[in-house]
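Why do we care about 3D structure at all? Because function follows from shape, and shape follows, mostly, from sequence. That is the central idea of this module. The next example makes it concrete: a single protein chain, its amino acid sequence, and then its structure expressed as tokens.
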Amino acid sequence: MMASCCDFRDAAARQFTAGKAAKELQAYRNGRLGPTTRLIRDGVVASELNQGSLLDIGGGIGALTFELLGCGMTKAVVADASAAYVAAAREEASRRGQTASTTVIHGDLLDVGERLPAADLVTLDRVVCCFPGYEPMLDEATRHAVRGLAVSYPLDRWFVRAGMWVENARRAHKSGFRTFVHPPALIRVAIERAGFRLSWRRTTVMWAVDVFQRTA
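And the structure:
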């Protein structure tokens, strides 16, 4: 059964706290960038999608947004379900003098999708795994993507599933937040069905990073 939007928002608020946001923001300011974030940035540049507008879904503290603004994107919208991470992203945008080019919106995609603008590029960095049902989210994301879409998600490997099971069990009585491993082939089918083709792909031990371009 799919969790309701309210269930997801409440669990996200308990999981992605102000303390975690502050640690991630400080790490980013110290030059540390997560591997999937770095790969999405590099894949977007390699695919020549680093121009125009960006919609960063589940953008957290905004690290990917700020990286892509530094690589040529001209304006960005960051949407995140955690109020603490939204506050951190706004703080960093202000510190960088990028409030004019960066809009930060509180809410998850399925709840605020109608309010979000279309963008040349839509990114979902480690977001697909946060939802029990990936298809409605990908349908909404591809609907907003004018030229390209970049996504990272966990690989369907036994040790990834085992690790995720342990993490979900650990969080069960604290935040109630859960993550999921979805079949990579079906993720690709859902995106290609919306009119995209895979243009760039890299993997780590645990993650896949795909960049898609809209077909003519």
